[in-house]
Write a structure and sequence with these properties.
Aspartate Aminotransferase, domain 1, 7-stranded mixed beta sheet, 13 helices, Aspartate Aminotransferase, domain 2, 2 domains, 391 residues, globular
């Protein structure tokens, strides 16, 4: 059978990650394995999550498990949370409930970009932007972050804009680097996109990818691009703050500073767009749980302690690490500049890590802070020994 060109292009983009995922799945349950690859749970679920799901599973009417679109109580709870968190005037109608951030990103791409349009994506960055774009016939345009700090390179973004550019993806806190972009960087980006939009005669949007927004360390603040650039839409996932990625719940939110007529047009397009991409709404039970889940969180302080333990041990061993300000991850240069070799060596010793090749950075690697303390303690001496061999 011959796949469509779009399907083949998407397969080519995501193939290495799919193969890696299969290998991790094959080995993760082996006795004694220390799995520091994906941001998966390795401890029992949060009681607040379980309580919220249990409360919603008991039917209260005949229509309890009927088709659901964007349910008003969930929209209202999310808008209220966003008003408090971001100090912006979100309204319930600004919210489209989705199957995690995946669904929100997919919806944004379909609402804002036509086939053949271009979307600027950060490198290193999340490995699913490009295949999601390819399967829709939209062209991903990778633009490097600053090679030293992994901050936004506003000049590089502006230079990458063409008459086909429709969206710039901004991921903060950023996967895999853990960087949180300060307001001044976002203001410079906003000014550049205003200038480039005028130059090409077409509005450039920002998709602010914020699934780790509530997972930040050391009291660092957060500014959403929606606060400085009106032409912003926000995607979010509850799977991170709840450490329950298998329970698909997220949303796409319209930046409330965008012009009222544009905001109305997008609001009206939510449900038709969600129907068209294949019933892009969360299950009824997850929507019922939203008001309770807004106040449930993993222990971010414990994640910070795991970050400190890994960062301290690896720094002492000579690793060069990017300062981790948020997310689940620690991002570092591999000894000898070969992340694949490091990952292979550690896998032989029962420690699984993610090589930077999956982020188009073969000289780096990523560790997940959601690993158990026991897994982290097993991994540290192996990582230290690997650095000593190269050194």
């Amino acid at each position: 059978m011959e796949l469509s060109a779009r399907a083949r292009a998407a397969e080519d983009e995501i193939g290495p990650m799919a193969a890696f995922l299969a290998e991790v799945g094959r080995r993760a349950d082996e006795p004694g394995i220390a799995d520091l690859t994906f941001g998966n749970p390795h401890e029992m679920p949060l009681s607040g999550l379980v309580d919220a799901l249990r409360a919603g599973v008991e039917p209260r009417s005949e229509q309890w498990f009927a088709y659901k679109t964007n349910e008003a109580p969930a929209q209202e709870a999310i808008a209220a949370g966003l008003r408090d968190e971001l100090d912006l005037p979100f309204e319930a109608a600004d919210i489209a409930l989705t199957q995690g951030a995946f669904g929100a990103i997919d919806l944004a791409f379909h609402l804002l970009a036509d086939e053949g349009d271009e979307v600027i994506v950060p490198v290193p960055g999340w490995f699913c932007y490009a295949p999601m774009l390819r399967i829709s016939g939209v062209v991903p345009v990778p633009v490097d972050l600053d090679p030293e700090t992994f901050d936004l390179d506003v000049d590089a973004i502006a230079a990458a804009v063409t008459p086909r550019t429709r969206i710039v993806v901004v991921n903060s806190p950023a996967n895999p680097t853990g960087r949180v972009y300060p307001r001044d960087q976002l203001e410079r980006l906003a000014a550049a996109l205003e200038e480039r939009s005028a130059a090409i005669g077409r509005r450039i949007w920002v998709l602010s990818d914020e699934p780790y927004r509530r997972i930040r360390f050391d009291g660092i603040g957060f500014t959403s691009p929606a606060a400085v650039y009106p032409w912003t839409v926000i995607d979010y996932s509850y799977g991170k703050i709840l450490l329950a990625p298998g329970q698909r719940l997220g949303y796409l939110a319209l930046g409330p500073l965008m012009p009222a007529d544009v905001r109305t047009t997008l609001r009206d397009a939510f449900v038709p767009g969600q129907l068209s991409i294949g019933w892009g709404f969360p299950d009824a039970l997850m929507q019922y749980a939203v008001p309770d889940l807004e106040s449930v969180s993993i222990d971010v302080g414990e994640l910070q302690r795991r970050r400190d333990r890994l960062h301290g041990a690896l720094s002492e061993a000579g690793y060069r690490l990017t300062p981790v300000e948020g997310t689940f991850y620690l991002w570092a240069e591999a000894p000898g500049g070969d992340g694949e070799a490091l990952a292979a060596r550690l896998a032989e010793r029962g420690v699984l890590i993610m090589p930077g090749t999956l982020f188009d950075r073969p000289g780096h690697f990523r560790l997940s802070l959601t690993a158990t303390p026991e897994a982290i303690e097993k991994a540290i001496p192996e990582l230290v020994a690997a650095a000593a061999v190269v050194g």
